[in-house]
Fold:
Amino acid sequence: MQITKAEVTPIRLRLKQPGAMALMPQIEDILVIFIRMELSTGQSAWGCTVSHPELTGDQPQEVIKACLACADLVPDLHPTNIEYSLDQLAPLVSEAPSAMCAFDLAFHDLLGLVSGLPLYRLLGGYRNSIQTSVTIPIGTVEESVAVAQARAKLGFRVLKIKGGRDPEEDVHRIRSIQRVLPNHILRLDADGAYSVRSAIEVARALEGRIEMLEQPTPADDLDGLCRVKENSPMPVLADQSVTGPESVLKIATRGISSGICVKLATCGGLRCADQIDAIARAAKLTTMVSCLIEPALLIAAGLSFALSSPNVQYADLDGFLELERDPSVPGFILQEGWLTASEVPGLGCTVNLS
Structure:
């Protein structure tokens, strides 16, 4: 068996509703780059990544260029020697790190196809389902409450509330949502927009009301994040501060946060995510597997990873719900806020780009 060719297909997918985050302009669409590896057996392995300057930090055209360069090299690589193959591709993605994610996923999907096993089992198979949060975007307090109630009616029991623009309003937002949904688990994500003082004040004001506070201070202010963690009555997780294994090692060594978030598209795929989680696990930091706005194929990979490790305590894998006309059809099941893996070999998704 060998890889006969690799195809690169970039497409823009619109969001059902424009996305808003603190410190970022409104997002209306996102570039998704699909990779299809054709095998000599007639099977196809799939991978993908997403690119948006505000979300991934690289430029879409650079990501496409890197993917095309990798696709030219892929037929010369061994289909199941993943470590070697991805190391060969690494120099080609130095200017566009998110491109590595697409090929990392495709090689892992291929391994699942060859072995006949679903990816979550190949990666460790610690569990087969996990509860995910669903995001409540920034809006007025009244809008946030209405969206939270709508998500609750769909079966979600864990709500991740986006904030960061106004600390006092965020406290009011959380209290208002909890008033109408007292039995739901609430998380607050400030996307790095608070000052240290504001973050500590918000954390103390919401003691007993939220499960965690995610990335309260700017990504590059590790000292500030550490001060918030030391003065917070609930766990503080690092998200945008996590840029790779080296950053997690620094966070772990200095005790900067209570846990870390892993996003496959920004860290480069499953191989890097495993390295990040291993460091977190050794340092007794909890891991949350999170996502960007991304298609179901990428969510399936994140889910496979989340199910593989006992150190993953939280999942935030709802990004595919925001997209219109996603060409990837998930094999996993979403029911009452729980994601259950497919037992189909590999990533377990089908992709229709026609």
Q: What stands out?
A: Residues 121-351 form a domain with the TIM Barrel fold (CATH 3.20.20.120). The longest helix spans residues 98-115.
